[in-house]
TrEMBL record:
Matches recorded under SUPFAM superfamilies: Concanavalin A-like lectins/glucanases
Lineage top rank: taxon: Eukaryota
InterPro entries registered for this protein in UniProt: Beta-glucanase-like (IPR000757), Beta-glucanase/XTH (IPR044791), ConA-like_dom_sf (IPR013320), GH16_AS (IPR008263), XET_C (IPR010713), XTH (IPR016455)
Keyword annotations of the record: Apoplast, Cell wall, Cell wall biogenesis/degradation, Disulfide bond, Glycoprotein, Glycosidase, Glycosyltransferase, Hydrolase, Secreted, Signal, Transferase
Gene3D superfamilies, per the entry: 2.60.120.200
UniProt similarity note: Belongs to the glycosyl hydrolase 16 family.
Localization in the cell: Secreted, Cell wall; Secreted, Extracellular space, Apoplast
Domain GH16, first and last residues per copy: 25-222
Protein name per Swiss-Prot or TrEMBL: Xyloglucan endotransglucosylase/hydrolase
Broad class of the protein's primary localization: secreted
BP term (GO), one: cell wall biogenesis
GO MF annotations, alphabetized: hydrolase activity, hydrolyzing O-glycosyl compounds; xyloglucan:xyloglucosyl transferase activity
Gene name tied to this protein: XTHB
Length: 295
């Protein structure tokens, strides 16, 4: 009986240690080789691997762009990529890093980097699709030239909020507003995608600036892929309610005071478009916009 009790106590202690370790998972990106975690989505001949697969370059020319996707699908987590954008005259090009499910009423979380003429700043557009509905664009100028060096672009996604980060600076928050009738991504696993393509029908000044193919091939570079999420094979309720992952802890259900100050700084200094303020395009403000104003 005593040995049985000792074994049971040891098992409970082991379980507690395991849960503590899971909750205290590393919070900084860990480099993962692309070759082990990604597959080309199209035009494989326009992708080049370096440094044992830890760094890749996407090429865009007149014949094709290209892209890649994660092998796994994820439901909630923290996802990050270091990217160096197309340099020089990048007008008409779009470099993207996003999460997306695969069905008609899909969910999607987007970073889209809109190229520009030489000397003009890149525009970072973010968007959130829920249940197949998007049209939630926000655009900012970055406070640096993203073609000069690698910078980290990250998404934190849990049951309470989706946060877009640039070098750990929050630039956008999309809160779970199901209580006011807004759908929220919570039950559709998403793959991680990145791509480089020609979008000169809309990307730069609404399509007025066309791609200058004299600068081709255009090159976007990637490294430092990081994913800490629940894979699709795991049970959604476990990911959403048990609080066993660091990104599912209470402290990540909202921004802290310092993060709110940084977000306000981005909004005041760098925001150039917010769908919540576009009364011409949207005469009736989306319900989540009222909550967004309180941030």
């Amino acid at each position: 009986m005593a040995s049985h009790f000792s074994f049971l106590a040891l098992s409970v202690l082991s379980l507690c240690f395991l849960l503590t370790a899971m909750a205290a998972a590393p919070r900084k990106p860990v480099d993962v080789p692309f070759q082990n975690n990604y597959a080309p989505s199209w035009a494989i001949d326009h992708i080049k691997h370096f440094n044992g697969g830890r760094e890749i370059q996407l090429y865009l020319d007149k014949s094709s762009g290209t892209g890649f996707q994660s092998r796994g699908s994820y439901l909630f987590g923290h996802f990050s990529m270091q990217i160096k954008m197309v340099a020089s005259d990048s007008a008409g090009t779009v470099t993207a890093f996003y999460l997306s499910s695969q069905n008609a009423e899909h969910d999607e979380i987007d970073f889209e980097f809109l190229g520009n003429r030489t000397g003009q700043p890149y525009i970072l557009q973010t968007n959130v699709f829920t249940g197949g509905k998007g049209d939630r664009e926000q655009r900012i100028y970055l406070w640096f030239d993203p073609s000069k060096a690698y910078h980290a672009y990250s998404v934190l996604w849990n049951m309470h909020q989706i946060v877009f980060f640039v070098d750990d600076v929050p630039i956008r928050v999309f809160k779970n507003s199901k209580d006011i009738g807004v759908r929220y991504p919570f039950n559709q696993p998403m793959k991680i995608y990145s791509s480089l393509w020609n979008a000169d029908d809309w990307a730069t000044r609404g399509g007025l600036e066309k791609t200058n193919w004299a600068y081709a091939p255009f090159v976007a570079s990637y490294r430092g892929f990081h994913v800490d999420g629940c894979e699709a094979s795991e049970h959604a309720a476990f990911c959403a309610t048990q609080g066993l992952r660091w990104w599912d802890q209470t402290e990540f259900r909202d921004l802290d005071a310092a993060q709110y100050r940084r977000l306000q700084w981005v909004r005041q200094k760098f925001t150039i478009y917010n769908y919540c303020s576009d009364r011409k395009r949207y005469p009736s403000m989306s319900p989540e916009c009222g909550r967004d104003r309180d941030i």
